[in-house]
Structures are given as structure tokens and as C-alpha cells.
Amino acid sequence: MPTFGKVPCMRKMKAQTKWRIVIIVGVLFGLLSVIFPVDHTNPPVTGEIEAPEEVMAILRQSCYDCHSNETVWPWYSYIAPASWLISRDVRLGREEINFSQWSSYSTKKQNHKRKECGEEVEEGEMPLWFYVPLHLDSEMMSKDVETILSWSKGALHKE
Prior knowledge:
Helices cover 48% and strands 3% of the residues. It is mostly helical. It has 2 domains: 3-35; 53-152, no CATH class. It has a two-stranded antiparallel sheet with strand order 1-2.
């Protein structure tokens, strides 16, 4: 390994150099955010899902940010590369199931989507593992999972 004096060249980088790199990377991400912005608008709600109050509370708390037209965009969703990843996740989530366009689904599709919701929650696939640490209130407790499962199987109906 090449050395300069008694210290290997890459072994101890000066603190100033480390901070310069951090600042340069931050500025680059800031510029990328301006050059390649993502759309943070929410389309209108055209036909919201109707479900029992306890189900709606869980859906709003754990699912709506990605699976509705009522996304709450956090501050970090405006900074690249997080902005691109979050925008992609929301777009894909809305394509998979959109609770704000529920009434546009046929009854057969609504039943299928409701069943899929239960399966995804039961298997621990939803909410996504990387979403929960940033949104601690979105974590589903066992009671929440049971409620969603009951609803997905048709045992709970809107009153």
C-alpha cells in the first residue's frame, strides 16, 4: 500500500476532507432533486372505500400513504434519491390497490382486492418492512391484523 510519510494514504482521511465529500454529495443530491423533481400531487378522491370504522382507522394509519390519493408526502420525499423511490412506491401502490378509487372497481374486483389485503397483512408483507421504521404508527399490532383478516374474509361489514 503506498504511503506518505508514516501514515497509509487512505487509512486516515482528514476530517475536513470527509466533510467536503459530505457537502459535495449533499449539493449533488439537491441539484438532482431540482433537475429531476417528482410529482407530489394527489389525484382527486373519486370513490372511497366503505368499511367499518375500525377497519378504516387501520387502513388510514397503515395503508393510505401508498394506497390512496391522500398521500402525506414527508419532507424527505422531496430530496433525491429518496424522492424517486417514494414516488415509485406510491405509484406502484396505487396501481395495485387504490382505496380512493374503490368504487370504480367491480364488486368482483373489490372482493378480490379485499381478500388480497388480508393475505398480505397476514403474511407480514404489508405494510412494507422499510416503511414502518419511518412511520411508527403504521405498524400493525396483532389486533389490527385480526381486524383486517376478519374484514377481508367478509366477516365485518360497514354498519
